[in-house]
């Protein structure tokens, strides 16, 4: 017998048409959205269904974090107030070399997933070492994830070089084939850590496997200067020559872009993961998001890792994206609230090739959705729920989260993840890392 639940919010957000419905019920059948109907019609059709009443709440699709290094929650606050390459070379890479293991990645990823679900994120596009541990942590938590199998040229305790990373990626993709909430990308780390030959292998393999590619690109001016010195061209020109720029690619950051580069990226259908807080904290620069969107590029939103953000708070991130776009362009109409919500939901889903299953509340899609309680002091009065979701909300107001139909957060409480255990593991790692 199918399990039917009628979810009855005060406001139901239709991201695809920028419309807010009132007086409607979302009909959930097992793991899917079966219909959205006026409440009376839904009760007539399913008189025996379970009912979830959300009288002060907005119901919307779950947020998609388009660029994350989930396990880096265990390095949150480890090294702050530094530029990217100093942060990586002198602090993060030495710490990762010493501590990162299957166990570290499993525990750090679970901590990240708990924080993300608590804040309304139902899916993440990850990139890290120990890909199998990332997948296992997500499966154990019932979280939807795109596992980025990282590939670098230099050896780490995880793999001795590009070839070893690729072999591990292939084995992992094979092991988790058929997992309903898990997908894989190949994730060459960045133009400065991956050779032309390895990028070539990644493109061929991704084509053969029919999977995406996830890479940091044009994050800092230093990256561009380094490429000009080593290769005689900017990274994007090099990557275009290698054939990397296509609709299969999610390019994280893309902060420093010329008009011609924006036009090229738009033409090739590359997706961009915008990471406003990380770009600000590392002082990487201000991405030209309004120009990217105007050129027709699909831009989603990501947090980056908790070691450079230092939160995994997608509502804070989309607010920052909207505010930065206005401040930067001198135009208050730049990146309006609806667009920020679309980027953080449907935009992310599109970038992952998953917009047929998530990103909007539509019949046939997976029930990945969140309810947000707008009765709190900070969101009173309420003329427009969309305004509050972008400009006024605190993530603590997320009250309910469903992933693939499973209620993961009920009245603000995680239902599946055991928070005390996850917190105990974080304390264990803090003691080990601090020595
Ligand atoms: C190979 S797995 C990911 C790798 O990337 C490092 N990292 C985290 N944040 C950033 C960033 O903003 N730019 C470049 N690299 C980053 C992380 O520490 C892992 O080593
Ligand atoms: Zn990153």
TrEMBL record:
GO molecular function term, any single one: 5'-methylthioadenosine deaminase activity
Annotated SUPFAM superfamilies: Composite domain of metallo-dependent hydrolases (SSF51338), Metallo-dependent hydrolases (SSF51556)
Pfam families tied to this protein: Amidohydro_1
Regions that span the bilayer: none
InterPro entries: Amidohydro-rel, Deaminase_MtaD/DadD, Metal-dep_hydrolase_composite, Metal_Hydrolase, MTA/SAH_deaminase
Reactions accelerated catalytically: S-methyl-5'-thioadenosine + H2O + H(+) = S-methyl-5'-thioinosine + NH4(+); S-adenosyl-L-homocysteine + H2O + H(+) = S-inosyl-L-homocysteine + NH4(+)
Major enzyme class: hydrolase
Protein EC: 3.5.4.28, 3.5.4.31
Entry keyword set: Hydrolase, Metal-binding, Zinc
Cofactor(s), by name: Zn(2+)
Span of domain Amidohydrolase-related: 59-406
Manner of cofactor binding, per the entry note: Binds 1 zinc ion per subunit.
Residues holding Zn(2+): 67, 69, 216, 304
Binding site for substrate: 96, 189, 219, 304
Family the entry assigns: Belongs to the metallo-dependent hydrolases superfamily. ATZ/TRZ family. Belongs to the metallo-dependent hydrolases superfamily. MTA/SAH deaminase family.
Function: Catalyzes the deamination of 5-methylthioadenosine and S-adenosyl-L-homocysteine into 5-methylthioinosine and S-inosyl-L-homocysteine, respectively. Is also able to deaminate adenosine.
Name of this chain's protein: 5-methylthioadenosine/S-adenosylhomocysteine deaminase
């Amino acid at each position: 017998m199918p399990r039917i639940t009628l979810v009855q919010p005060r406001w139901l957000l239709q991201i695809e048409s920028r419309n807010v419905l009132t007086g409607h019920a979302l009909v959930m059948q097992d793991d899917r959205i079966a219909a959205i109907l006026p409440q009376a019609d839904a009760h007539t059709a399913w008189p025996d269904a379970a009912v979830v009443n959300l009288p002060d709440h907005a119901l919307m699709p779950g947020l998609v974090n388009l660029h994350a290094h989930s396990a880096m929650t265990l390095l949150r606050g480890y090294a702050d107030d530094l530029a990217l390459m100093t942060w990586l070379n002198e602090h993060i890479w030495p710490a990762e070399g010493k501590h990162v293991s299957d166990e570290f990645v499993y525990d750090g990823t679970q901590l990240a997933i708990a924080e993300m679900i608590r804040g309304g994120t139902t899916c993440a596009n990850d990139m890290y070492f120990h890909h199998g541990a990332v997948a296992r942590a997500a499966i154990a938590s019932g979280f939807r994830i795109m596992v980025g199998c990282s590939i670098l040229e230099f050896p780490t305790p995880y793999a001795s070089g590009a070839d070893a990373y690729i072999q591990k990626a292939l084995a992992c993709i094979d092991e988790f084939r058929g997992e309903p909430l898990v997908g894989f990308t190949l994730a060459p780390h960045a133009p400065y850590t991956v050779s032309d030959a390895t990028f070539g292998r990644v493109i061929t393999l991704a084509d053969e496997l029919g999977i995406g590619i996830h890479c940091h690109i044009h994050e800092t001016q230093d990256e561009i200067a380094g490429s000009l010195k080593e290769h005689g061209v900017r990274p994007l020109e090099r990557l275009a020559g290698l054939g990397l720029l296509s609709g299969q690619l999610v390019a994280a950051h893309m902060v420093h872009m010329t008009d011609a580069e924006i036009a090229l990226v738009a033409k090739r259908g590359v997706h961009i993961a915008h990471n406003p807080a990380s770009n600000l904290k590392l002082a990487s620069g201000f991405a030209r998001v309004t120009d990217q969107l105007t050129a027709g590029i699909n831009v989603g939103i990501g947090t980056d890792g908790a070691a450079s953000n230092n939160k995994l708070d997608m509502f804070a991130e989309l607010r920052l994206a909207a505010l930065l776009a206005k401040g930067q362009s001198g135009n208050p109409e730049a990146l309006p609230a609806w667009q920020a919500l679309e980027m953080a939901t449907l935009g992310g889903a599109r970038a992952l090739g998953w917009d047929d299953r998530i990103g909007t509340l539509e019949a046939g899609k997976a029930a990945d959705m969140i309810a947000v309680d707008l009765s709190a002091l900070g969101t009173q009065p309420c003329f427009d729920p969309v305004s509050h979701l972008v400009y006024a909300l605190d993530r603590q107001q997320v009250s309910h989260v469903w992933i693939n139909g499973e209620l993961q957060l009920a009245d603000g409480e995680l239902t599946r993840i055991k928070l005390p255990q996850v917190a105990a593991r974080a304390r264990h790692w803090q003691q080990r890392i601090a020595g």
